[in-house]
Amino acid sequence: MVKKINTCVFISGKGSNLNSIIKSSREYNFPVVIKLVISNNSNAEGIKYAKKYGIPYKFYSSKNHSRFERSCLIELKKRKIKLICLAGFMKILSKNFISKFKNNIINIHPSLLPKFKGLNTYKKVLENKEIYSGCTVHYVNSKLDSGFIILKKRTLINKNDTENSLKLKILKQEHKLYPQAIRLLYK
After folding, report:
1. 172 phi and psi, to 5 degrees?
2. 138 catalytic residue (yes or no)
3. Could you tell me the pTM of the whole model?
4. How many domains is the chain partitioned into structurally?
């Protein structure tokens, strides 16, 4: 039996990357098992994937950031979580929180980092008239979208791409890249 790493996925929205990781985690030789989903948005659509696959999930309001992180840490410790995957999680974690999971928090970002950190990446990419964009899986550190890069996937931008068409194109790549990066970390 393959020993799998207890993993938690943090989400804020639709959860399509969560779904991708869950599907991969059901494969015999995939290195992680999703033991918990945490959301800071009580209306996050991604919770439906946790429900569908019988994965425990928690909602904690992030209005009080320190209370949010404290609640998360208690739950993560209780469930012996070793890896955190941020998948469309729209809050920045504190240095203190990150230090408790040093090199065990990863994120997927919809650009070819180090270019276009933060929000509105598709708009920035198109305004900059880039030929390529893509997505990046990286470790989380205390600087926004600046951690060590694990994997990138490049996508050609068409002349008629809009923010929405580019988003959909890159999202398809993200669904492949995130599980691939997790496999790479634990091979």
Report:
1. -60, -40
2. no
3. 0.96
4. 1
